[in-house]
């Protein structure tokens, strides 16, 4: 039994899944709420809710999967710490799943070129590109011009997913490239996170994937003394 959790974006989600007969993820229970921030106080109540929904307990879990970013710095830390803590307490393995890879996962059989793009503010995007051959552009931080240039290297049809998809579609149209938008979601689907983990993807143990330094930095001369 796999427990998948996501706190990397504005949603807080948990799901229980197992491999179905056809190899796909069979979701037994899932809970998801929009929180923006404060993931730490919501995560374990959600986990306990899905366990109750499926009528199982923590000892029934075989492994844990968690989104590792890119996304909210605080949210990523909350999820990774929770997954590591559960793995240690239960003696089970944990793996990290990239948010961009999870966005691309439902498009794996769509054909053509799939582009996952999340708004990173400052006219930049977190992006990854996949084709039938697999992941061709690993998760990275680019400005829109840089991303459109990379997309030009790949063939049509183009399928976009993620919160930056509408803006990216407009920019691609301006240079004569047509694209379809699969979704403009600003977070990964927890079912895709579970599906990737059950397919053997992920980094073990989970490690945060930030792609950008944090906005908040200690002021010079303002370091807090350690006890």
UniProtKB/TrEMBL annotation:
GO terms for molecular function: metal ion binding; tRNA N(6)-L-threonylcarbamoyladenine synthase activity. GO terms for cellular component: cytosol. It catalyses: L-threonylcarbamoyladenylate + adenosine(37) in tRNA = N(6)-L-threonylcarbamoyladenosine(37) in tRNA + AMP + H(+). It comes from the Bacteria. This is N(6)-L-threonylcarbamoyladenine synthase. GO terms for biological process: tRNA threonylcarbamoyladenosine modification. The gene is tsaB. Its EC number is 2.3.1.234. Residues 35-128 form the Gcp-like domain.
């Amino acid at each position: 039994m796999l427990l998948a959790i996501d706190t990397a974006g504005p949603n807080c989600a948990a799901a229980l899944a197992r491999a179905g007969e056809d190899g796909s993820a069979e979701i037994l229970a899932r809970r998801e709420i929009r929180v923006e921030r404060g993931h730490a106080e919501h995560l374990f109540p959600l986990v306990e809710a899905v366990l109750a929904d499926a009528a199982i307990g923590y000892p029934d879990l075989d492994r844990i999967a968690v989104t590792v970013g890119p996304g909210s710095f605080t949210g990523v830390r909350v999820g990774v710490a929770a997954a590591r803590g559960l793995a240690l307490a239960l003696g089970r393995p944990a793996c990290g799943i990239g948010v961009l890879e999870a966005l691309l996962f439902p498009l794996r059989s769509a054909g053509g070129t799939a582009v996952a793009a999340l708004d990173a503010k400052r006219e930049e995007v977190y992006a990854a590109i996949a084709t039938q051959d697999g992941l061709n552009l690993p998760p990275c931080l680019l400005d829109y011009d840089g991303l459109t240039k990379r997309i030009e290297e790949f063939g049509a049809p183009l399928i976009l997913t993620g919160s930056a998809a509408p803006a990216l579609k407009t920019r691609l149209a301006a240079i004569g490239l047509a694209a379809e938008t699969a979704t403009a979601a600003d977070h990964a689907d927890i079912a895709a996170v579970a599906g990737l983990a059950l397919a053997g993807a992920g980094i073990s143990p989970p490690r945060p994937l930030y792609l950008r330094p944090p906005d908040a930095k200690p002021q010079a001369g303002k370091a807090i003394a350690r006890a």
